[in-house]
Amino acid sequence: MSAPLHERIRAGIEAEILSGTLAPGARLPVEHELMRLHSCSRMTVSKALSALASAGLIERRKRAGSFVARPKVHAMVLDVPDLGAEVIGRGQAYAYRLLGRRMRAPRDEEEKLLAGKGRLLQLDGLHLADGMPLALEHRLVALAAAPEMAEADFSAEAPGSWLLHHVPWTEAETRISAVNADDASADLLGLDPGAALLSVERRTWRGGERITSVRQLFVGSAYDLVARFGPS
Amino acid sequence: MSAPLHERIRAGIEAEILSGTLAPGARLPVEHELMRLHSCSRMTVSKALSALASAGLIERRKRAGSFVARPKVHAMVLDVPDLGAEVIGRGQAYAYRLLGRRMRAPRDEEEKLLAGKGRLLQLDGLHLADGMPLALEHRLVALAAAPEMAEADFSAEAPGSWLLHHVPWTEAETRISAVNADDASADLLGLDPGAALLSVERRTWRGGERITSVRQLFVGSAYDLVARFGPS
DNA sequence: CGATCGATTATGTCTATACATTATAGGCGG
DNA sequence: CCGCCTATAATGTATAGACATAATCGATCG
What are the coiled-coil residue ranges (chains A, B) (predicted)? Predict the structure, then answer.
């Protein structure tokens, strides 16, 4: 019942926008009007409007007033799951099987950029759900950014999960595409060659420094990425 | 040079967090300390801290102080592009070719849910970039939510773009997966049967009312979805 | 010794006011 | 009629203070 006043004002205007009562492009009451409506000070309505503005719902223009933003390119929220947690959350047994582990020097420009001054740790593995192959993972880690990783044991915890808990990223970029399985991948995943795979490539940074680069190949029929937008 | 004071304070603390100077869990100076440091009022530092808190970078606890949040970043931002704008942005020519258009009654439970009290408009089409097939689109629109759409002309503007500008959504859910092309789809996209396709299924709402449901099949090798997280 | 309870300290909200900034509208001159 | 220019109306930033709220620490009492 007793949410803060600025929050109630914000929610009220948000509801009017989402319901369409306030159409895109519509001008909403000026701050002094809202002050009068809610019998409060200007700082309070300003706080409500600032929140709406930073959420992209309205646009504020000096001298002109505040307007409902025209919905441009919408953005959605894509969950970046810890794969293990995700599988267990679906009630399946999760396992990670390490297939290969090498420490080596960077081989090309892209890898040099990742490695920085140090060497690279290459980790190949298989994610399993209820014993069935779910995804094939090829990962490169910059040892300069995560030196402790050279000694880590990945029989219990997958590298992705280990990294998330020890060297969390602050920036990341994900590319999602579809590819046909080559013979080796198909064999490891227990599929026919040519089967459709969902490819998720992710590069992560921590304050400008590259941490890791990973490519996960999901069995197309066994995994969906889900993104959402809206009042959760 | 002269960014607002609260913004400079916010940026300063953000930088310390991202660089690791302030480690996760660390307590940061109390508001009165920051007031003294920057010779400003409490409202100003409070504004800076509020921004950091709403961005999830810090956690504020009464009586205890403010702490750098332990990073449990699970979400990234996925742009939902207007496909035409996206293609043109890459410097290619964009076209949409309507393949089929029918008005009909809902056929199953899922479609009934979408249609509401009205009928459905089914639109099948092909997105082209520089004359090459980019994606096959199968769309169902609830005419109850967008009656004007029955008369719209889709030779100039794709249905997705039309909808975005006329009946913008407020909630959406996207499922992304990979599938092998069936014979008909492969033929329309100019691919061999079995080629990997990126399947993007999206359902949208406007304040509780279903608007449209679309499945886009992208040529796997020609299109990447990109998601980002981090200080833009 | 342990549980409870109050004092203290931090954040949370709000007011009233002041001045800065900026885009617009409308007037004024050419 | 057009272009400049200024007054004005809106938001943006900041101050100082008041009271609310919540959690923690420590002291007191059973």
Answer: none
